[in-house]
Amino acid sequence: MYYPKSQIKTNLYANPGEFVTLQDNTPYSGYYWATSKGTYYTGKNPNDTPTLELIKSTYTETQTTPLKTAVNIISGSSSVDNYLNLRGINLNQLPRVYAPNYYLNVPTEDDYNSGYYTRYFCKKANQNIYLEISKDTYNDLLNYSPNIDFENYNQFKLIWTLTGNSPLEVSNINRQQVLLLEQQLLLSGFSNYFTNYAQFYKTD
Questions:
Q1: pLDDT tens digits, one per residue of 37-92
Q2: N or C, which end of the chain has less CB nearby within 10 Å?
Q3: SS3 category, 78
Q4: Strand partners for 160
Q5: Domains of the chain: which residue ranges?
Q6: Measured between alpha carbons, how far is 197 from 34 in angstroms, rounded to an integer?
Q7: What are the distances in angstroms from CA 8 to CA 43, 49, 156?
Q8: What is the pTM (predicted TM-score) of this model?
């Protein structure tokens, strides 16, 4: 895409919680640029690809799904039963193929070109136990797949910054993002899961 220089502002920086991606509502922090029409895009400027459109965050995604909480606490409620019936799900007859397994999401070269990527996690219901999982496992939990023990886990995702001026800068960005999720989703102790907030760091 092309915009005259007079119609864009470049090298802006989004703090955690300020923007989400338009495509899938994923929280975003890092460099962005803006147009005079009030649209926002990832990257330092229009030449910094790949480019994703951003929107102001209202943080409507509640990965700690209210329905799952209801299933755990009041599984006999009519609203939950109606939902499960519509999906053809019987909690007492679900064949469990697997529980979530640990999976380290390693960034690709395309991710490094973007400067960030998405990592996926789950939390054991009613326990502060966290596990990094694959995107496929995340989607199974999100979509209440009968193949997974979905009622005992809550899934969420995290934008992880990969590039910056220094490891300290990247570490601070990722730590702020983790603390923000910890606060917004009531993920007590999630920040203790990480020992290196500059993990996978690479210079610009």
A1: 888 888 888 888 778 888 887 543 334 443 444 344 333 444 555 555 655 555 55
A2: N
A3: helix
A4: 117
A5: 5-56, 66-203
A6: 28
A7: 13, 16, 33
A8: 0.58
